[in-house]
Task: structure prediction
Amino acid sequence: MPLKFSSYSQSVLRVMQAYGGFNFVPPSHDTTGVTDSAKISASLVTYQATMLQASGRYYTSGPVLIDRGHGLMSLKWRAAGASGLNSDVGCTISPGTAWAQGAAPLPQLVTFVGSSEGGSGTTASSWLAGIEIDGNGTPAGPAVDGIGMYGNANNGLLFGFAVNRTTGHGVNLVDGHAGATPDGWHLISGMINNPGADGVTGDTVDMVATDVHVQGHTSGRGWYLTGSNCRLVGCRADQGLHGFVSDAFLATGNPAAGIELAGCGTQGNKGHAVWAWTSAPGAARQPLLVTGGSFFGDGADGASPAFMASGLTTLLADGITIIANTNYLATGSPAYGIGTEALSGNKPVLVRVRGKFVNAVTGVVSDLAPAQLMSYDFHGYQGGVWPGNIVPTLYKLNT
Result:
């Protein structure tokens, strides 16, 4: 009888075949992390693909460094939304009792290293697939990220991954020397649970994220992106501080590729669900484009609009649904559906919202800045949580 593999396993096997072989590293059960770290590091240097045991728990004594053209994987897909993240079901990497940053460039459990930071000059991609990075047991001290991309560690892949309870960010894309930026990453089918800071954060260009769910980011933002030309498809940011935050720098004379969300969603964030923001109040930012998606019960602090444009920003939303609810605040949230604010006297350049439905406890629009140009056309309900049996009002403005 021929062997049968899942579609995920077939994909992994094709990667191994394409990259010319692999090495299998079994777990040592050495809880200091010294043994597993030595074996995994040696394999990553020698082989392009390092395979870990599907049901194994590995302990490390310091950051796992992955060079360009090398990958780490198991044949167990950690599906987004899977329960029991901190369990021994599936392949897990966690810090051992001897964990320390040591000579590694950044405090991260796993770091993809670009050639600008001492990695090889190869243009081949790197990857991590079918593995949970578990931050439980991280020693006290500086915050430690789950997965990092450093410098020009470009065109990599995270697939079927999970990051759990890190003391720092879940995934952190970090500029290297001379402005080298992680470029062209693909994040597919992932779960980031209870990070100590942001879920996915940093400066990157040409990134595509599909079906990646961040939740429990109570001290940070689900997604915080400062690069450009990034696409998020079917991603989520739930029950944290803020949901999706765009702070994409707009260089003078350069085209504005923007940040785009398609079919994404949120629920129960204390602050904004979607926020076009600028960390430099006098500097313009690239457009934030939102197409489709549902945003449920955000603004649970009682004041934050679900969608917010602050300072010299552009927010373009089409076909969105904002729903108020009492699950996260007894009086209902959000108070406002669409909001604007000036930063140091600088007002949003353009805010445009076209359909579908906006429900807010106080008002569907709060244009406090006001925006330099505001335009909207949607059905909505304000003054409370929509009961479902009252015909909504058409709200329309063209300025």
